Amino acid sequence: MKKWFLLSSLSLLMFSACKKDKDCNTAAPATVASAAETAYLQNYLTTNSITATEKNGMFYSITTQGGGTSPNQCSTIGLTYKGTLITGTTDGGTFDETPAGQKSTFTLSGLIAGWRIIFPLVKAGGKVTLFIPPSLGYGAQSTPDRPGYVGIPSNSYLKFTVSLIDVQD
């Protein structure tokens, strides 16, 4: 009886795992930044002579398109990145980055909306710079300073420079 229960449970788990994989190909978030947030980023870009494309109220610049696969919301992505604060018309301090010589790995669906919106436009091997307003970033969440990095104040504007190394579905 215990064997039957164990086998039934494992079978159910396997079928639910398969269903989850099939349901995982969801669309990128439809969230759009406010006009005020978009204007703030546009002012930053204009002041710093940066050309970028707008999508959902955030901006991005693909510097290298890459030649591999583009991720979907369920993909695991390997990348290197550097995140800095945007303060007024200048870059603030670095709040996070991939350690030198290492790769960070994430499931795209678990990341902030700004990344989930733009990364399906980039292919493995590509490089992109993201300019993200608070509503598509961390919103009202904040993080404290830590050794070598600044904290992220609530409602921060963020700049990420990212190299998408690989994509796994």
Please tell me about this protein's structure.
The chain is α+β, with helices and mostly antiparallel strands and 169 residues long. 24% of the residues lie in helices and 31% in strands. It contains three helices and seven strands. It has helices spanning 2-23, 35-47, 113-118; strands spanning 53-55, 58-64, 76-87, 90-97, 104-107, 127-132, 157-168. Strands 1, 2, 3, 4, 5, 6 and 7 form a seven-stranded antiparallel sheet that branches. Strand 3 and strand 4 (90-97) form a beta hairpin. The longest helix has 22 residues, at 2-23. The radius of gyration is 19 Å and the shape is globular. The two termini are 38 Å apart. The model is unreliable at 1-22 (pLDDT under 50).
Termini separation (Å)? 38 Å
The Rg value, from CA coordinates, equals 19 Å
Instruction: Give average pLDDT, whole number.
Output: 86
User: What percentage of the residues does DSSP assign to strands (E)?
Assistant: 25-35%
- Main beta sheet: 7 strands, antiparallel
Shape from CA axes? Answer: globular
Helix-residue proportion: 10-25%
Low-confidence stretches: 1-22
Please work out how many helical segments DSSP would assign: 3
- SSE series: HHEEEEEHEE
| Class of secondary structure makeup | alpha+beta
Number of strands: 7
Helices and strands, with pairings:
Layout: H1 2-23, H2 35-47, E1 53-55, E2 58-64, E3 76-87, E4 90-97, E5 104-107, H3 113-118, E6 127-132, E7 157-168
Antiparallel strand pairs: 1-2, 2-6, 3-4, 3-5, 3-7, 6-7
